[in-house]
């Protein structure tokens, strides 16, 4: 059976992790750790990185049950700018390299007309209010890496709009393509919380 390019890349990133100075990681990011793992909160799930193999595992029950990582998170240095920019306007973005137009349109349409439920869903996920937007909140991909979610309802002239903003230096840490995966993971979790809030309404 042929190994996919994704699996090859994941394995390469595991090997790369083993070349990092783990003592430096211990003191830099504030992650919990022990002799076997670094414990890395990612969005709304627990993750850990095996210090001996580089394998990434996720869990929703404090590691009683685990699944191997479906993403490649690396513990490299990042210095935050403290200011936000839209995904297509980040420093280091190649001119003309943009997120596909309308990529979030179906999600925006789903939330349209349900802004109060959307706000409740964001609060339930730990979001902190932000501005502007009919529903706008700051979340954290990792404890030190913020993500801004913004939503505007439709009106007579414009359709609903959903946008993300990142710290200007995020591309020092995550690849541009990886932002797609993070936004997708975030929206999947938000959908679940949104459905729960609609049920309660």
Word description of this protein:
Helices cover about 30% and strands about 20% of the residues. With about 200 residues, it is an alpha+beta fold. The strands form two sheets. It has a five-stranded antiparallel sheet, with no helix packed on it. Strand 1 (about 30-35) and strand 2 form a beta hairpin. The longest helix has 25 residues, at about 175-200. The protein is globular, with a radius of gyration of 18 Å. The model is unreliable at about 70-75 (pLDDT under 50).
Mean of residue pLDDT values? 81
Instruction: Characterize the overall form.
Output: globular
User: What's the total helix number?
Assistant: 5
Estimate the strand proportion: 15-25%
Q: Estimate the helix proportion, in percent.
A: 25-40%
Low-confidence stretches: 71-77
Query: How far apart lie the N and C ends?
Result: 49 Å
Core attributes:
single chain; alpha+beta; 5-stranded antiparallel β-sheet; 201 residues; 5 helices
